[in-house]
UniProtKB/TrEMBL annotation:
The keyword Membrane applies. Coiled coil: none annotated. Keywords: Membrane, Transmembrane, Transmembrane helix. This is DUF4386 domain-containing protein. The lineage of its organism: Bacteria, Bacillati, Actinomycetota, Actinomycetes, Mycobacteriales. The keyword Magnesium does not apply. It comes from the Bacteria.
Length: 259
């Protein structure tokens, strides 16, 4: 095979400037969110959220009509939820490259690790429990319905902390690993998380858990933030290697730097 054939083949897959380990982590992000959308939108019908002012009879019908999708979808979620650690780890890795304390990276990971429980897993277990035995008391089904959706939409604190940490790290960074405009989008994410607080009060309208402000505005900004992060992570990884940095610096160099 001619020697010139190899570079052409590499360009079709992983860009030659991106280390294989970081490329694998980066590729897992769009794959995960594609499956995430399939689970929550198509299979379980949790997004967009069903109405908070639904009657007990409507809630029972919802679980009956979507029982198979809820079980299959949330079983798939439990199987893949750990892959978020690769995305979070890759972002934390970029934060550690910034001219800020590594505490920011650890705080970013910690906030998301805690937030995954009320913001994702708790809702899934509540909905699966509701469909596991179809002969449950309808009032118990209503309880699980409200508990799951209040947790799913209203778990604002951990994700607000995550975005605050990222925004502060970007503002304080002198290396410009990420552009400053990403910090401003992250602050908008914090605003939308705060606006999710009223879901604990309102049962209808724009501030309810399916409302235009509490849910749709936050979802739109999150989608924009996620697309931006995927693109900027790819650029940050490539730029790091292009500038001559090593993905894994020699041990004697890192020890010398610490001293």
């Amino acid at each position: 095979m001619p020697a010139t054939a190899q570079p052409t083949r590499r360009r079709r897959g992983r860009p030659p400037s991106v280390p294989l380990d970081q490329w694998i982590c980066w590729c897992s992000i769009p794959i995960f969110y594609l499956l995430f959308g399939l689970i929550f939108v198509v299979l379980t019908r949790v997004m967009p959220p069903p109405r908070p002012d639904a009657t007990t009879a409507q809630i029972v019908t919802f679980f009956q009509d979507n029982a198979i999708g809820i079980r299959i979808g949330f079983a798939l979620l439990v199987a893949i939820i750990g892959f978020t650690a690769m995305a979070n780890g890759l972002i934390a890795f970029q934060i550690k490259r910034m001219s800020v304390s590594p505490v920011f990276a650890y705080a970013y990971i910690g906030a998301l690790a805690v937030g995954a429980v009320p913001g994702c897993l708790f809702a899934s277990f509540a909905f699966v429990t509701a469909t596991f035995r179809p002969d449950r008391d309808p009032e118990i089904l209503r309880l699980l319905y409200e508990l799951g959706l209040l947790s799913f939409v209203g778990s604002l604190g951990c994700f607000a902390t995550q975005c605050t940490v990222l925004a502060l790290a970007i503002f304080l960074d002198h290396h410009r690993i990420f552009p400053v405009w990403l910090a401003y989008i992250s602050l908008w994410m914090v605003v939308t998380e705060i606006l999710a607080g009223p879901v604990f009060v309102f049962e209808s309208g724009p501030l309810s858990w399916n409302g235009s402000i509490s849910f749709w505005l936050g979802t739109a900004i999150f989608v924009g933030w996620e697309f931006s992060m995927i693109i900027l992570l790819r650029r940050a990884i490539a730029r790091r290697v292009g500038e001559g940095e090593h993905a894994h610096p020699p041990r004697h160099e890192s020890t010398r730097a610490e001293r």
